[in-house]
Amino acid sequence: MKHRLFVVFFLSMFVFALPVGAAQLKLGFVNIQKALNSSQAGQDAKAKIAQKAKEYEAEFVLKRKELKDFGENLKKQMALLSPEAKRDKEREYQQMVTDFQRATKDAQAFLKQEDADHTRAIIRELVKIIEKIGKQEGYTLVFEKAEGSILFADKQIDLTDKVIKDYDKEYKTGK
Q: What CA–CA distances, in Å, run from 104 to 68, 82, 150?
């Protein structure tokens, strides 16, 4: 309770401490997630990662079939093999399974890292665009509209579509 009173007191002091003749605050917000997903760069990155995922999946379909075939052949040969040969074949099969699991895990990690790298690069560029718009149009503050951070804001101060449009222009010329 004391903490809340302090915050209210601090905010009211800030508001009342503004000089009477001070320029009016101009506020805006941007939905970074929407800009990331809707921008051409974001869509291109998603397509690139989806293509790589398809390539991995095609590779893993073949490997799964190889594993299945090897396992079925091993079952058929078990009665004919010596105990030592059985152990060797079972070890070989287990190694193949382990290698397959490692490859799928590595592919998932690679795709996740690629997504993070693309996201970071796009967000870095979006922030530059937001700063440019903010300076050009005289915004005092531009907030990020993350889930739960802005409970209400008039659509007139939503800069998201403008950011996407400006970023797409730069992205197309820089491509």
A: 16, 33, 39
Alpha-helical (H) ranges within 18-39 are 32-38
Amino acid, single-letter form, for residue 104: T
Say if residues 148 and 17 touch (Cβ distance below 8 Å).
no
pLDDT in tens, 113-146: 999 999 999 999 999 999 999 999 999 999 998 8
* Residue partners of 63: CB distance under 8 A and separation at least 6: 100, 103
Q: With CA atoms as reference, report the closest residue to 144 among 130, 133, 155, 128.
A: 130
Cα–Cα nearest to 129, from 156, 159, 161, 163: 163
Residue identified by tokens 């939905």 is 31
Per the confidence metrics, is the pTM higher than 0.90?
Answer: no
d(CA 57, CA 64) in angstroms, rounded, equals 10
